[in-house]
Amino acid sequence: MESIKLHYDVSADDFTRAGAASGDVKRTLKQLGVSPATTRNVAVAMYEGEINMVIHAGGGEIDVEITEDAIRMVLADHGPGIENVELAMKEGYSTAPDNIRCLGFGAGMGLPNIKKYSDEFKLETELGVGTTLYLTVYMK
Amino acid sequence: MTVQTLVEELGWTILTEGDLTKEVTGCYCGDLLSWVMSKAQDGDCWLTVMGNINAVAVAVLTDCACIVLTEHAALDEDAKARAAQQGVTILTTELNAYQAAVALSERL
Ligand SMILES: Nc1ncnc2c1ncn2[C@@H]1O[C@H](COP(=O)(O)OP(=O)(O)OP(=O)(O)O)[C@@H](O)[C@H]1O
Ligand SMILES: [Mg+2]
Questions:
Q1: CATH number of the domain encompassing residue A78
Q2: Which of A93, A101, A103, A115 to substitute to test the interface with B, most B CBs within 10 Å?
Q3: Helix crossing, B53-62 with A36-57: angle to 10°?
Q4: Domain of B83?
Q5: Using one digit for the tens of pLDDT, what is the confidence trace for B50-103?
Q6: Which of A3, A96, B80, B104 is in Cβ range 3.0-4.6 Å of A106 for a Cys bridge?
């Protein structure tokens, strides 16, 4: 299989479109005949990353590469960065404001979900510069 | 049981119509989207009060059979439009999540 590359611009605070990039990748994987289990892992990990970009970082960019053995995702933003990564990775930790919580976000489960549903997980962050997630899901 | 059968047997009202022939194989209750995203399964009937556009996105990504708005929780206009466009079935009932889950479990 030729490797497939996809690129998405995720716009700032655009809740009405949030989930569009992950939805598109999910459709693509389905069309390619990728297994439901693998597709689900990608959908969960990418959706949570996409939403975090919108809520916490004013948008960003997502690059996806689909190869024969894995799906690799890079989610990069120029938001405020994460001060305490260990804390942010804890289930239940969230800095989401009330107006965001009313929408159903802010359980503090996004980053833990991303880690759980990806086979390789790397988070780079710098205060005032931004955050980049490198995620890999193996084809199963 | 298909979504269509569920609608007929439980008398819940259709707000948006997706694939009514989809099999309902389970149920998940929850309003916090990150929980639902990671726990709801393909074929689940998702009971929630979250009738916004983000809930529609979660329904699409989890392949749940339908969203059921319990206690007639409000459905946003943009969520309704998106659900129709993406083929997500949304139902509404006056039952609360507990009552709806019990009614459903008797038929699953
Ligand atoms: N891209 C990001 N930029 C800046 N801060 C972030 C970013 N992603 C996560 N965070 C910080 O890490 C915290 C935990 O993130 P996580 O996704 O686990 O939870 P949440 O987004 O607050 O809630 P949930 O994902 O359950 O709706 C966030 O509340 C936020 O403070
Ligand atoms: Mg999050």
A1: 3.30.565.10
A2: A103
A3: 160
A4: 3-105
A5: 999 999 999 999 999 999 999 999 999 999 999 999 999 999 999 999 999 999
A6: A96
**DSSP per position, A48-84:** HHHHHHHHHHS-EEEEEEE-SSEEEEEEEE-S---S-
Closest A-chain CA to B48 = A104
Domain encompassing residue A109 = 4-138
> For A47, which of B35, B37, B82 is closest by C-beta distance?
B37
Per-residue pLDDT reduced to its tens digit, A21-74: 999 999 999 999 999 999 999 999 999 999 999 999 999 999 999 999 999 999
Number of domains in chain A: 1
According to DSSP, residue A9 is labeled E
Our answer on whether the CB atom of A108 is closer than 6 Å to any ligand 1 atom is yes
Q: What CATH number did the domain enclosing B61 receive? A: 3.40.1390.20
Domain count, chain B: 1
Bridging pattern class, strands B26-29 and B13-16: unpaired
